[in-house]
């Protein structure tokens, strides 16, 4: 058995989805990963991970509109407003999506479907430096 | 260490939950899997995976009613309507649930709770052919 | 390769978030786990797992208020009321969060971010005995 660990630093431009499928695929290729399991882990509570449609950019805009309506910034329901009106909504959005994804890898290739892309979903309005851990285990 | 990889093809009858607990358990048994980790991965962005109550069918009907109210088909919020009024809602439902599940396996048996079943949640109205990857790693 | 399996029994005091980061970290230390992958699996359909902000208790109160508004107890939408008005909402909340989390471990330490804590989210109003499986695989 072999293991690989990698720290991916993703600067975001503020709220929205940031694709990193290629960064993950390139890393697996560079390291000569074979068949195994890739786990992607976000170290944040105000940004999350999503597998989403990678073709029509309208999907990302619609997703964002949906979350903005479901968890409105500045909602008077929230008392945790230390970092502004998007602070608590960012935690709720993270709870409703994922902090971690695991993807089977066959002969070095993630077994993603044709329309699946990997995204970091930034939930804060301001740009952030995000840190995602990639772990691969296999043969 | 040993690894197993399997492609499960699940035809759906349209929107709703499709149980596949037995298919996963049978595969582990057939392959003589021991103790390890099973990862289930859906290759779609308009269908997802869920662990849910496996006893009372009302639970599935109630879940579907909840999601239909939360993410209504034909919502004017959505611009991505290429494949109809259930296209974008299917992506949102997938984002709110899971594309992947990992389950510890002990001596060939998934450590599911008594009331837990594995489901593919089809979010499109029309029947589809769905493709789920099963990956097991262990000893 | 080495594997470890542990059954964690968590008594809850009813609805709300119950931290177990220390219990998981202590177990890894006790067993001398090295670098690998930790998978945490909840065996329930009315309680779930969450990685959330571990600093300000207001975050947990706000999260609970959000879910109570999104999935109200006693909602006439629901027919599955066998165990009371919080029965079906507990299943929906579980579907919207996670039954499983996997976390990369480096030299015995989970690679959690500074503000990330592990929580069992109890969705039933009454106290329960919950059962979470910890599985570690690595070297």
What does this entry look like structurally?
The structure is a homotrimer of 139-residue chains. Chain A is an alpha+beta fold and 139 residues long. The first copy, chain A, has a single domain (2-138), classed as YjbQ-like (Jelly Rolls, Sandwich), CATH 2.60.120. Chain A has helices at 21-30, 57-70, 87-96, and strands at 2-11, 16-19, 36-42, 47-53, 100-106, 109-110, 116-122, 129-138. A 5-stranded antiparallel β-sheet of chain A has the order 1-8-3-5-6, covered by helices on one side. In chain A, a hairpin with a 2-residue loop joins β5 and β6. The longest helix of chain A has 14 residues, at 57-70.
CATH homologous group name of chain A: YjbQ-like
Give the distance, in angstroms, between the N- and C-terminal Cα atoms of chain A.
5 Å
Query: Strand pairing plus helix content of chain A: what structural class?
Result: alpha+beta
Task: Work out the count of structural domains of chain A.
Answer: 1
Provide a quick synopsis of the model.
Chain A has helices spanning 21-30, 57-70, 87-96; strands at 2-11, 16-19, 36-42, 47-53, 100-106, 109-110, 116-122, 129-138.
């Amino acid at each position: 058995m072999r293991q690989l660990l990698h720290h991916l630093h993703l600067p975001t431009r503020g709220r929205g989805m940031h694709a990193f499928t290629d960064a993950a695929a390139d890393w697996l290729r560079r390291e000569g990963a074979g068949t195994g399991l890739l786990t992607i882990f976000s170290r944040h509570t105000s940004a999350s991970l999503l597998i989403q449609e990678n073709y029509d950019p309208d999907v990302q805009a619609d997703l964002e509109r949906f979350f903005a309506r479901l968890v409105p910034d500045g909602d008077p329901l929230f008392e945790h407003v230390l970092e502004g009106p998007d602070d608590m909504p960012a935690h709720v959005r993270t709870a409703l999506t994922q902090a971690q994804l695991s993807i089977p890898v066959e002969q070095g290739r993630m077994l993603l479907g044709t329309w699946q892309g990997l995204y970091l979903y930034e939930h804060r309005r301001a740009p952030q430096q995000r840190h995602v851990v990639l772990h691969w285990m296999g043969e």
